[in-house]
Design goal:
Layout lengths: L1 E23 L9 E11 L5 E4 L5 E7 L3 E14 L23 H4 L12 H11 L5 H15 L1 E2 L10 H7 L1 E2 L1 H14 L4 E8 L13 E9 L3 E6 L4 E2 L4 E7 L2 H4 L2 E6 L4 E11 L2
Parallel strand pairs: 6-7
Antiparallel strand pairs: 1-4, 1-5, 1-13, 1-14, 2-5, 3-4, 8-9, 8-12, 9-10, 10-11
Helix pairs in contact: 2-5, 3-5, 4-5
Length: 281
Amino acid sequence: MKLQITHRTHYEYGSPVSESFNEARLQPVTHAGQVCHQFLLKVLPATRLRHYRDFYFNWVQYFEVPEPHAALSVEATSVVDTAPPPAGLAEAVFPMRRLDECLRLESCYDFLQKSLGVSLDVAVWKLAQDAAGGETDAWQAALAVMRFIHRGFTYETGATTVGTHMLEVIATRRGVCQDFAHVMLGMCRTLKIPARYVSGYLYNGPRDELKGAQASHAWVEVFLPGHGWLALDPTNNQPADDRYVKLAVGRDYTDAAPVRGSFKGAAEQRLDVSLEIARLA
């Protein structure tokens, strides 16, 4: 599937601000199952753009606007080819009793620890144990956690903010895709299943059957030795397929936020985000 994506982020400030420093993780990755053919980032006020790969190999564009400005616009346009996951994913197998081996893998260590948005509290562990129901296979346990969140939590826009901690979401059982991803991260990590946060998009054409479709989306990848990173979406209770476009990964939202930054000046600001996804082929 070939998709064209235009992601616009616009800030307006109560009074002019200055010394704005920003990072954008808006460039889709190229990996097995996904190829980014084109990427263009436009920023107003116009400024010089630089880029680098961060610790988790995400593409990061960074820029600064030192002069006073009353608004900031960031527009990212991408063309991406996606492919369905390989056949046989449903048969992924790895014994729970061998998960300690993942602690010795450098690529997994960070994704077994607590982080800013993810708790490994004993209450999270108990919830994960209940959800897994004694499963002896890690993939089946991850699927059980995904189903548990989908059944037991209500998708409700406005119920949380980007700063809402997963323990609050567990208490209220309400949130959006970012929140459900954080809850799944915590539950999987307490089961010793390496799990990382994924930011991106979910294309659903003109339909509205999938929550989070046609908007910024978040899901989870779990690691199984011999199988690699496998993507699961607790918001929609399904493995990720060719409708998903992956931007960045991290320990939680703070590592993979599409746009983040700081500035000097008025605290009052208004944020508008719009997204257009069109299928080209």
